[in-house]
Amino acid sequence: MQFTELNLIPSILKALEHENYTEPTPIQQQAIPPILSGKDLLGCAQTGTGKTAAFAIPTLQLLHKNNAPKPGRRNIRALVITPTRELALQIYENFCAYGKYLPLKCAVIFGGVSQKPQEIALQKGVDILVATPGRLNDLIQQKLIDLKDVELLILDEADRMLDMGFIHDVKKIIAKTPSQRQTLLFSATMPSAIAQMADSILKNPVKVTITPVSSTVDAIGQRLYFVDKGNKKDLLLHLLKDSSIESAIVFTRTKHGADRLVRHLTKAQVSAKAIHGDKSQGARQTALQNFKNRTLRVLVATDIAARGIDIDELSHVINYELPNIPETYVHRIGRTGRAGQSGVAISLCDFDEKPYLADIEKLIGKRIPVIKDHPYPMTQTAPTPKEAQPVRPPRNKGKELERVKPKVKVKG
Ligand code: AMP
């Protein structure tokens, strides 16, 4: 199928050509027609499937066709809510790219930076607003944002918003939009709290499910190294000697772990930076930019900070620590192998992480191939006594996600 078969207007087709997109991805093929015909949509899809374009393209076309903007101040007619600043920026950039030949204005707002420039952008009038829930709610309360003209509401990564404790903010925001609106909800997993919310806010939605979270993208080569916890740093350095690893995201579970690892890598002359919630927005953006333009080889990230980072042609994902939630493994390795490209996902597993590994292999329905030939084979043969173990989060099997109450509310 070609984009030309989706009844898109020439200005959008021209922009897609400019992006070198030839064929719509499966979610784009299935979601664009019903959205264009005005239907609500429930999309079960994760980052990497092309879901941003699946909602951004028809949103631009609907806003342009239904009611082309009049001169003067514009009111927000499409609102996208997404959990993280990085995702918000990426969605905004996608709207700008696909809408570059249309007279529509898009703006992005998120927390952690000064409010003033965002206020100024809003005062000038915007047609499409991309926002994280915390900052959006703040600005609504300050009466700087009015959602009474919203025709299209898009909730992106709804399951992550739940995980991050945003669900009440999101519900408050939805209540400020007109009930006569078109609503699109995207989520990688469907915990019951999200299914209930979808039921209450979507009207006869078309349901589109792409790559269930349990089926790992086939293009990704997965490898597993058993190693003692104390040797992980050295094994990582050993693996990074392989020059075919041009760029890699390395996942750690904690912010401190990420910082410690960056210090170790830097000492060994490997260019690395960390991105996590304690870093300023500026520092995160610079790290991401340097990683994208290949001046930085390794980006060490925690799951929340890395969620949704859109980096083209990422060759390697390294799980320095296995996640306690098996779905997170699939999200992590989905950073590579995007839009049909091949990638490699390497996991380092210590003895005490074996239960996490069992959960992951159960979820993906296969054993991850083990690489035995390496200089730091595992020597530990029994679990570390409880009192000597670092505090590890409990294992969490996806379905129970909604019961996990975040201790800290992350403001968007
Ligand atoms: P997303 O799932 O929205 O994060 O998109 C994943 C990546 O796929 C992004 O880098 C997009 O720019 C890219 N992409 C989206 N749609 C297409 C397409 N039809 N052809 C090629 N690349 C695409």
Brief description of this entry?
Residues 32-208 form the Helicase ATP-binding domain. InterPro entries: DEAD/DEAH_box_helicase_dom, DEAD/DEAH_RhlB, DEAD_box_RNA_helicase, Helicase_ATP-bd, Helicase_C-like, P-loop_NTPase, RNA-helicase_DEAD-box_CS, RNA_helicase_DEAD_Q_motif. With 412 residues, the chain is of the alpha/beta class.
What does this structure look like?
The protein has 412 residues and is of the alpha/beta class. It has two domains: 3-210, P-loop containing nucleotide triphosphate hydrolases (Rossmann fold); 220-389, P-loop containing nucleotide triphosphate hydrolases (Rossmann fold), CATH 3.40.50. It contains 15 helices and 13 strands. The protein has helices at 10-18, 26-36, 51-66, 85-98, 116-123, 133-141, 158-163, 167-175, 192-201, 232-240, 255-267, 281-292, 303-306, 326-333, 354-364; strands at 41-44, 78-81, 106-109, 128-131, 152-155, 182-187, 206-209, 220-226, 248-251, 272-275, 298-301, 316-319, 343-349. The strands form two sheets. A seven-stranded parallel sheet has the order 3-4-2-5-6-1-7, sandwiched between helices. Strands 8-13-12-9-11-10 form a six-stranded parallel sheet, sandwiched between helices. The structure holds adenosine monophosphate (AMP). GO terms for molecular function: ATP binding; hydrolase activity; RNA binding; RNA helicase activity. Its EC number is 3.6.4.13. Residues 231-379 form the Helicase C-terminal domain. Residues 1-29 form the DEAD-box RNA helicase Q domain. It catalyses: ATP + H2O = ADP + phosphate + H(+).
